[in-house]
Amino acid sequence: SHQRPTPRGSGLVFVLVTTLISALASLFGVPGGVSFCVLPLLALPLAVVGFLDDRHNLSAVLRFGVQLATALFVILISQLPLFWLAVPVLLIAVTAVINFTNFMDGLDGLVAGCMAVNIAALAIALNAPWPLWSLVGALLGFLLWNWSPAKVFMGDVGSTFLGAVFAGLVLQASSWSEALGCLLVATPLLADACLCVTRRLVAGQRVFQAHRLHLFQRLHQAGWPHARVSLLYILGTAMLAVAMLFGGLSWVLSLSVAELLIGVWLDQRVAVPFTVASQN
Question: What is the DSSP letter of 79?
C-alpha cells in the first residue's frame, strides 16, 4: 500500500505511555477496578515480542505462544461468568482479535483511528478508571503522525498490543450480552479480517502468507486514497459506538448487520474484485 520506506514500530510510543501510567495507577491504587489498570501490563509482553518481530522476524511459533499466554491471562481477569467450555473458545477468540487487529494495520490511520474510538467507547460503557484514557490520548497523538501521508507506522508492537487490550476490555463486561455489544463496535475492523481469512481458506490460499486482499486494501487498489478508506472505517466504528452506548445490544447488532451489507456492496461494486486481486 506504500511506495516509500516508512519507519515502523512507532506503536512503542503509546505502549510505553499506557503501560507506565497503568503501572503507576496499579501501584498507588485507583478507584474503579484493578483489572482495567492491569490489562495493559498483561499485553506488554506481546508488545515486546511484536517490537522484536518488527526488527528480526521472529518465528511464528514463538509469537503465537506469547499470544496464547496473553490471552489466557486476559481471560483469568475476566469479569464474565465463565464455564469450562468458555475458556478454550475465548482463547481462540482473543488470539483471533489480536491477529485480526494486526492484519488490518495496512493503511494510514486505519487501526489507530478505529481503536481510539473502540477503546473510548468501551471505557465509557464499562465505566473504566481514568488511566485507560491515557491509551486513547496517546493514540490520538500517534494518529497525527500516522494519518495520510503517514510518517510512521505502529508495527506489530502497536497492533498486537491494541488487539489484546481491546479483547481484554470486552471481557470486563458484566454479562455475555454486554460483551457481545462491546465486541460488535469493532465490526468494521474484525469483520473485514474474518471474512478475508474465510475467503482465502475457501480459495485454498495460504492464510498466513502476506497479501493485499482485505476489503480496505482492494478499495485502495480501486483508487480510493488512504484517508477516504480510513475515514469510512472510523465513521462506521463511531456509529456503532453511539448505537451501543445509547441503544444497547439490539441497536448495535442491527447497525452491524447494516454495515456488513454495505461492505458486501462495496466489495461487489467498488473494490477491485477478490479474484482479480488474488491473481495480482
Answer: -
